[in-house]
Amino acid sequence: MKILVIEDEISMKEIIQESLEKEKYIVESAVDYISALDKIVSYEYDCILLDIMLPGGSGLDLLKEMKELDKAGNVIIISAKNSIDDKVAGLNLGADDYLIKPFHIAELTARVKSVLRRKTLNGKNELEIGNVNIQFDDRVAYVNNELLVLNRKEFDVLSYFMVNKNRLINKTSLAEHVWGDFSDQADDFEFIYSQIKNLRKKLKDAHADIEIQAVYGIGYKLIVL
Amino acid sequence: MRLHNYTLLYISIAIFFIIGTWASIFYVQMLDEVYDSIDDNLGNYKLLIVQKASKDSSVLYKADFDESNYSIRKINTPHAHKQKDVYKDTLMYMQNEDDLETVRLLKTVFTLNHSDYYELRIISSMVEEDDLIEDLFYSLIWLYAVLLISIFIVNTFLLKKIWKPFYSLLDQLEGFSLNNNNFLPSKTRVHEFKLLNNAVSELLKKNIELYSSQKQFIENASHELQTPLAISINKLELLAEKNELSETDLYVIGSVIENMQRLTRLNKSLLLLSKIENKQFYEEEQVSISEICTRMQEDFSDLAGFKNISFEYIQHSALSVKMNKGLADMLLSNLIKNAVIHTPAAGSVSVLVDSNSVTIENSGSQALDQQHIFSRFYKNSTDTNSTGLGLAIVKAIADKYGFIITYSFEGKHRIQILF
User: Fold this and answer.
1) Same domain, B224 and B346
2) Which of A2, A36, A60, A63 has its CA 20 to 30 A from that of A90?
């Protein structure tokens, strides 16, 4: 899997690159409009992360060029601007997703994987780790081919952990991903803890090969036993 | 007191004194002139009577006034020839009036042969002073009233006409808001008003510039902060993922991340606030409040369930409002989130939707400060994680659309929005 990161902020670019390389992707990068266009024209990428504000031109213009070249699929726009106009324009130009800075690494991974799944699995939108299999479109999970009964939030938690296998997930990141923006108050973490406790129990009872481990002070990590 | 009445008050006081003074002087002068003329007449009479007496001595024996206006009697006073003419007012019975009336009397002494002295008294009818004063008084009152009424009318008319630019300026200033620059003073030919308009325009222009540059600054600053914040958080997340750190180190990193996230939220809220105030949410549509509330109830059911809070949603009638959809979401989610989060465990939250209002009640132990609850950075709890901007955002949204938002406490916190 080859991913292109178009981001002018060097530190940001490095972080994204490092994080995606951990997932064993081949990551290339471009820091301005011209070099980005150059790479897009010359090579094929499975996913492109695109910053809107670039030296030498707008990311949206770049997106237009990609559309002309029929390469606009699999683009995730990364922007510091939480602007509905930009979002609508970007998605209309064929971008797949729109991520607002600052974001959590786990969130980025989840989005990238979602885009890649849609592209590669021929519509079979699923993920398997050990004996656990989740079907994203149907929103169901199986352990040893047996249905694991989960409520809506538990499914969201599990799928977030699954796409971020072996990665450290910040509890705020998890809360934001699953419960949305409202979960930004202190005592919610207790609430998250209780939800995860339930999920852990269900996984254990079903003899799943995976386990959600708590990482002191930060959050959680899904590991394969 | 209105400018109009104010001027009228001063003018009426001034006119009162002016007319009073003028009337007294006028009265004295007029009376003086009348006396002067009567006395001249009496003097003239005296000469005529003395001339007549020197020709016809029978005149000398006319001791009573009777039908004529003089009387003469012989006197034997020593030093009579030294007596001077005396003019004085005296009372006399008038048959037609059946009353004593004031008359002017000239008492004088004359002689025809330097041995016999006669006292001559001549009278002339006088103006009746009390009647004169009365007439004058009433006339003056009428004059005063008519003057005041005409001044009132002229003043009203003039004020309306002359002060029109002033009142229009006042109107403009009353309706002025820094957010929408709608100041357009009316044109005027009056120099002072021109100066005033220019001065106010200039002042407002400076304020608007300052205000918008400040808003722009907040927005830019918030924007610029996003990237370094993102980088810092993400770098820490990557650092934490390395398996080289001790638990204590991880804990420290976790707490740094948490604080950075707080900063991020604060920043996002500030950005949102300035965006709302900068009127960047101009798209409007008919938004179903009932629908949003139903969704919110679902969204918050987990948290409410976890805290063992009973969450009740009552819909008396469907409610939809023309506003920005994102802001409607923000408005209700902020309020409901607040209610759920600040309700103690096992408490209750209720959301009531009416045909023109939404009321959110939640249990709590004591009332919040009504004055400051909607101010920025107002925090009641010691909860370090709240930004203190949630209700400020709610207020900004309400203000933008002219919704009325009220807080009250009667055993429960109660926030109501009137659409």
Assistant:
1) no
2) A2
